[in-house]
Automatic annotation (TrEMBL):
<dbReference type="GO" id="GO:0006281">
    <property type="term" value="P:DNA repair"/>
</dbReference>
<keyword id="KW-0378">Hydrolase</keyword>
<keyword id="KW-0805">Transcription regulation</keyword>
<dbReference type="InterPro" id="IPR006199">
    <property type="entry name" value="LexA_DNA-bd_dom"/>
</dbReference>
<keyword id="KW-0234">DNA repair</keyword>
<protein>
    <recommendedName>
        <fullName>LexA repressor</fullName>
        <ecNumber>3.4.21.88</ecNumber>
    </recommendedName>
</protein>
<keyword id="KW-0227">DNA damage</keyword>
<dbReference type="InterPro" id="IPR006200">
    <property type="entry name" value="LexA"/>
</dbReference>
<dbReference type="InterPro" id="IPR050077">
    <property type="entry name" value="LexA_repressor"/>
</dbReference>
<keyword id="KW-0742">SOS response</keyword>
<dbReference type="GO" id="GO:0006260">
    <property type="term" value="P:DNA replication"/>
</dbReference>
<feature type="active site" description="For autocatalytic cleavage activity">
    <location>
        <position position="132"/>
    </location>
</feature>
<comment type="similarity">
    <text>Belongs to the peptidase S24 family.</text>
</comment>
<dbReference type="InterPro" id="IPR036388">
    <property type="entry name" value="WH-like_DNA-bd_sf"/>
</dbReference>
<dbReference type="GO" id="GO:0006508">
    <property type="term" value="P:proteolysis"/>
</dbReference>
<dbReference type="GO" id="GO:0045892">
    <property type="term" value="P:negative regulation of DNA-templated transcription"/>
</dbReference>
<keyword id="KW-0235">DNA replication</keyword>
Length: 211
């Protein structure tokens, strides 16, 4: 790769990946990147991608073939604003089993689906960890789109922050003097808290392509 991998080459690859994501709502595979770059070997495309990941322009989630995200640094490289009205910030992982600490560090951006009417600055995206919501089809590894709001109606699926500053995804119920967070998994019990902080209501689900 050597001297040929300069800023112009980085921009070219990042723009093609970004255009693919905007057109398809999911990232390209390494094989598709090699076609976009007109290189014969997929290993060459993989080398380009790994270099972009190392340099902080791309981020890869897990070992799936379609797991690339363009970082804020990468978006800046190609002249795209990280607060683009068509991009939803991706904020790491949230538990749908045992709660885990939520850290609002933006890890990347996801194209705003056409069928969602909310503006992107009212939304964020999280990756699910755990199986407590499998009864309604939210599985471990799925990604959810959440509308930012600090209140919810009984029965809505929420991202809630507990008194221990841990975030979890559950069905919300306000009952008398406590909050009940209900897992959609028959093997798990409800979580009872005197109070929680609602971070948002789940409005959509994205399941990354597995092949």
């Amino acid at each position: 790769m050597g001297q040929r991998f300069n800023d112009d080459r980085r921009q070219e690859i990042l723009k093609k990946i970004n255009n693919y994501i905007n057109d398809n709502n999911f990232p390209p595979s390494i094989r598709e990147i090699s076609k976009m770059m007109n290189v014969v070997s997929s290993s060459t495309a993989a080398t380009y991608v790994n270099r972009l990941i190392k340099d902080g322009y791309l981020k890869k989630q897990g070992n799936r073939s379609r797991a690339l995200e363009i970082t804020p640094k990468g978006l800046e490289m190609i002249g795209e604003s990280s607060v683009d009205n068509n991009l939803i910030p991706v904020i790491g992982t949230v538990a749908a089993g045992q709660p885990i600490t939520a850290e609002e560090d933006i890890e990347g951006y996801f194209p705003l689906p056409e069928d969602i009417s909310y503006p992107s600055d009212e939304l964020f995206m999280l990756k699910i960890q755990g199986n407590s919501m499998i009864g309604i089809g939210i599985n471990d590894g799925d990604e959810i789109i959440v509308h930012r709001q600090n209140s919810a109606n009984n029965g809505q699926i929420v991202v809630a922050m507990t008194e221990d500053n841990e975030a979890t995804v559950k069905r919300f119920y306000q009952e008398d003097d406590h909050i009940r967070l209900h897992p959609e998994n028959e093997s798990m019990e409800d979580l009872i808290y005197p109070t929680v902080t609602i971070l948002g209501v789940v409005i959509s689900l994205y399941r990354p392509v597995l092949f």
